[in-house]
Design brief:
The chain has two domains: 1-162, Orthogonal Bundle (Tetracycline Repressor, domain 2); 163-283, UbiA prenyltransferase (Four Helix Bundle (Hemerythrin (Met), subunit A), Up-down Bundle). 78% of the residues lie in helices and 0% in strands. The radius of gyration is 19 Å and the shape is globular. The protein contains 13 helices and no strands. It has helices at 5-16, 18-36, 46-70, 72-78, 91-108, 113-131, 137-159, 164-187, 189-192, 199-203, 207-228, 233-254, 258-278. The chain is an all-alpha fold. GO terms for molecular function: transferase activity, transferring alkyl or aryl (other than methyl) groups. Keywords: Membrane, Transferase, Transmembrane, Transmembrane helix. This is UbiA family prenyltransferase.
């Protein structure tokens, strides 16, 4: 079956998960904005920050693409509309695109030693996650969460300084993403059986205790920022709203409404991003 150029381009964008890549860019920008208040105005580092944002976008795209390559057999049974199972993109083409995305990401990461180190580390971890560790998904949860949360430190590194505030934001984001990943595992338990080892498959109901820990740890960490790092009242307001939404996600999780819990987690994380931005407002 032949596909038009338009179909091919659409498939490439689907392979990249553009929304996830854009979120990575935004997180890098927020990381840079937060630490810029400590050193110098952001425009002085604008070029470096833009390079870091582009780098994060393409490394994220590479991670998404390689995941689809190794999940092609599963997707052929469960999600035939995805780029590879639908044959709009072949495995070989997806492999070339993955290498291209990674190379572009690493090229733009050449800002300083820290950004290069983080970029290489994430390429290695994302590749290991999809290839070697994909069947041991309970470890993959932490890799995905680490990759998502490190974007804040990546942005800060582009400016040249990593503050306690950005470390706290990174930890809070890490906890939130682990909670969401485990929630997704509960949602996908039937699909993953016999294919991947997840916390719910490995520990059954006991896995909920692990998820609950991260559900609680994320908002508590964010609130600690206001208490110990002297962040402003606008930040606290944003965190309180995010905590309320996160509590709703927790409630849905306990009621086994995993799909809805995931969506609430995403909403809470988006509100948290707004709170992180509000933390730099001078009042």
């Amino acid at each position: 079956m032949k596909f038009s150029i338009k179909d091919k381009l659409k498939a490439v964008l689907e392979l990249m998960r553009v929304k996830n890549c854009l979120m990575a860019m935004i997180a890098v920008l927020i990381g840079a904005m937060v630490v810029s208040q400590v050193v110098r105005p952001l425009p002085f580092d604008a070029i470096n920050v833009i390079l870091a944002m582009i780098s994060a976008f393409f490394i994220c795209a590479g991670g998404q693409a390689i995941n689809d390559i190794f999940d092609a057999k599963i997707d052929a049974k469960l999600n035939k509309k995805k780029p590879i199972p639908s044959k709009r993109i072949t495995k070989n083409q997806a492999t070339v695109l993955t290498i291209l995305f990674y190379c572009v990401g690493l090229f733009f990461a050449q800002i300083n030693e820290i950004t290069i180190f983080i970029a290489i580390m994430m390429v290695v971890l994302l590749t290991l996650y999809s290839s070697v560790l994909r069947k041991v998904k309970y470890l993959g949860n932490f890799i995905v969460a680490l990759g998502t949360s490190l974007t804040f430190i990546y942005g800060a590194s582009a400016v040249g300084v990593i503050t306690n505030t950005i470390i706290l934001f990174t930890i809070a984001a890490f906890f939130a993403n682990v909670a969401r990943e485990i929630t997704k595992d509960f949602e996908d338990i039937k699909k993953d059986k016999g294919v991947k080892v997840t916390f719910p498959i490995l520990l059954k109901e006991k896995a909920k205790s692990i998820a609950i820990f991260f559900y609680v740890a994320s908002p508590l960490t964010a609130i600690a920022g206001y208490i110990f790092l002297d962040l402003n009242i606008l930040y606290l307001g944003g965190v309180v709203v995010a905590t309320i939404v996160f509590a709703k996600a927790y409630e849905l999780f306990v009621k086994r409404k995993y799909s809805l819990a995931q969506k609430k987690c995403k909403q809470a994380m988006m509100i948290s991003l707004i709170a992180f931005i509000l933390s730099i407002v001078i009042i």
